[in-house]
Amino acid sequence: MRCREGHGSRYVRTFTRWLAALTVGLGVAVSAQTDLPPEPIPNVKAIATPYPASYALVHDFAFGSLIDSSFSLVDTESRRFMGMMSAGQFATVTFALGRQEFYVGETVHSRGTRGERQDVVAVYDFANLAVVAEIDLPPQRANTVVNKANTAVTADERFLLVWNQNPGTSVAVIDLDSRTIVSEVPTPGCALVYPDEARGFIMLCGNGALLSVKLDEAGQPASIEPSDPFNDIDADPLSEKASKINGIWHFVSYQGEVQPVDTSAETPVVGSRWWLTDAEQRAQNWRPAGWHGTAGHDSGLLWVGMTPDGYPGSHKDPAPEIWLFDVEAKTRLARFDLRVPALSIDASVHDEPRLLVVNIEGQLDIYDGKSGAYLRTIGALGETPYMVHAIH
Fold first, then answer.
1. Once rounded to an integer, what is the mean pLDDT over residues 51-79?
2. 20 to 30 Å CA-CA from 108: which of 226, 266, 284, 392?
3. What pairing do the DSSP bridges indicate for beta strands 248-252 and 257-262?
4. CA 224 to chain CA centroid, nearest Å
């Protein structure tokens, strides 16, 4: 039986011609692609140094997968993502501008989530974000949630300080020239490290005192001096989320007092407290808030995240407002609402500083530091970005 040609066979011829044209087109495209030179692997671009004041690090704590945290380097002016440093669990970061190096403290285990514990400080260079050295630590580095004061570099950039807790507390002193541990300072009952203006550091102690440690040229403790107790642990203790302005650390109490501690002298000077709030605001329970809710600038400015209707424990709540203070005059200069409430804040070193805000949506918001005007947002910074570090 013969089949009469109809719509079906015409469709087949049309489809065949279309498929032939497509095949030729693909062949041309593939041929054009093969003319491109292969990309070298790895292909790492260097970053111009020294960094501009607009660069910042955002710490993704990776709360849902703690063994795999990271630090993203971003340009807060152009919103460009510049690079990333990976880290293990409960990571910390600090840096030395003179050395152009980052120091990432991390804990890993030989079987990923189990096995032999290994503590290390990975040294990254600024230009390539490449690991240039590793410093092995005893397995006693304090494993805590994100906290800036777990580690620090001394003011002369000679020594790296790492706070230990296992369960007793101490501070490992690492010579950054030789990249070796040169001493371990026992600090029973005292926590965290806040560098002074020389070659030393202070710590907060459980009895309400400060511990001041001075190091000699070899990194050995030249003096270890406690202060008289001044921090009322039971009534209104100081938060550890402090900011340094011209050599003076500004601690903020849970209820809203500022406690300055001047570290520019041989012995730390505990200054007079002053309130962030007036009587009416205290009656409304306005209190400091945020994961790291303070930021300082050497022009004498202090930013504090604030929340109304505070209660015991509200210091970890997001901050819907930022209040700006003149620390010399002890007065508030401005008060502004945030686009999205803040987890953590920091301030850039611009002459006209930018306020950097990690918000509860996992983004980095940038504001004019003085007026509070919203400028821009940077997103896609990881699973749980909790902290921002201005690089200064």
1. 95
2. 392
3. antiparallel
4. 29
Cα torsion at 317, 318, 323, 328 (round to 10°)? 60
Does residue 66 contact residue 54 with C-beta atoms inside 8 Å?
Answer: no
Antiparallel, parallel or unpaired: β 117-125 and 257-262: unpaired
Q: Which of 322, 325, 274 is nearest to 297 (CA)?
A: 325
Give the distance from CA 144 to its chain's centroid: 14
Distances (CA, A) of 293 to 140, 239, 251, 286: 28, 10, 11, 14
pLDDT, tens digit (0-9, with 9 covering 90-100), for 137-189: 999 999 999 999 999 999 999 999 999 999 999 999 999 999 999 999 999 99
How far, in Å, CA of 46 to CA of 149, rounded? 29
Q: How far apart are CA 354 and CA 52, in angstroms?
A: 13
Please enumerate in sequence order all residues whose Cβ is within 8 A of that of 235, keeping only pairs 6 or more positions apart, or say none: none
Mean pLDDT of the 360-379 span: 98
Query: pTM here?
Result: 0.88
By C-alpha distance, which of 102, 162, 152 is closest to 132?
102
- C-alpha–C-alpha distance, residues 87 and 238, integer Å: 30
d(CA 183, CA 321): 43
Mean per-residue pLDDT over the chain, rounded: 92
- The size of the chain, in residues, is 392
Q: Token pair of 314, please? A: 């509200």
Q: Give the Cα separation of 97 and 363 in Å (integer).
A: 26
